[in-house]
Amino acid sequence: MELREAYQECKTIIEHHSKTFAMAFRHLPREKREAVWAIYAFCRKADDIVDEGAHPVQELEVFGNDLDLFMSGSRPNDSALWIALEDSFQRFDFEPEPFYHMIQGQAMDLTKNRYQTVDELLDYSYHVASTVGLMLLPVLAPERKNELYDSAVSLGYGMQITNILRDIGEDLRRNRIYLPREVMARHDYTEQDLFNKIRDDRFISMWEELASLADHHYSLGIKELSLYPLNARLPVRAAAMFYSEILNAVRKNRYQVFDQRAFITTKEKERIIQESIK
């Protein structure tokens, strides 16, 4: 497979699975945009193993071994993912830790399906979402990646909490509850209430507490926007605003998260981008 074909396949993956991410980063220069596609393909592969793999424990172990081989300087195979990622690693100065931490985060879903505290939730969110931001920093802001570490982590927190609040019903069908029990207890809302799909004042106040936590981390992440190079500021702001707007979409749907998935339209995304440019 040729390099251009490999990147094109990674682009297809991001456009199919995350139109939000694809649209946010489409304004980057081509070399950076291609690296984003490769990083997303890596993350998607890990996620798909856990959610769709026939033997996810063994498959994730194999994927981790492939990453070991890759980090040692050898391409594990000639799939589009490794061809594109190999080229991106030659262009940008990546740290290996976020890639390993991502796999560790996906492994959590194989052994843990309930969370007791907000701190546990944030630890999970770091592994499956903040790591993506840390992978992207050498691409988006190579000269300031150390200074922007906390910003990337906070944006990941916000995005993952948003995903959780949007996907409550979908996660329940997989017997996964990411809402921390301490937060549920504060609002006198039980696990049985969740399975009964009860959307009352208790549910809304619980949901809004976590939405406020997500918004707090969006604010922390965007606060350092001026440290990003000019060509990365719009994509980073757009990504944060796209995800933040998902929370408003849930509110407009009257918190109907059990049987439908909130989303923002392409037209709304275009509006957000235009407002971000001003």
From TrEMBL:
Q: What is the lineage of its organism?
A: Bacteria, Bacillati, Bacillota, Bacilli, Bacillales
Task: Provide the protein name.
Answer: Phytoene synthase
Listed CDD domains = Trans_IPPS_HH
Which PROSITE patterns does the entry mention?
SQUALEN_PHYTOEN_SYN_1, SQUALEN_PHYTOEN_SYN_2
Is Transferase tagged as a keyword? yes
Name the source organism.
Salisediminibacterium beveridgei
Pfam families to which the protein is assigned, alphabetical = SQS_PSY
According to the lineage, what is the superkingdom? Bacteria
* Pathway membership: Carotenoid biosynthesis
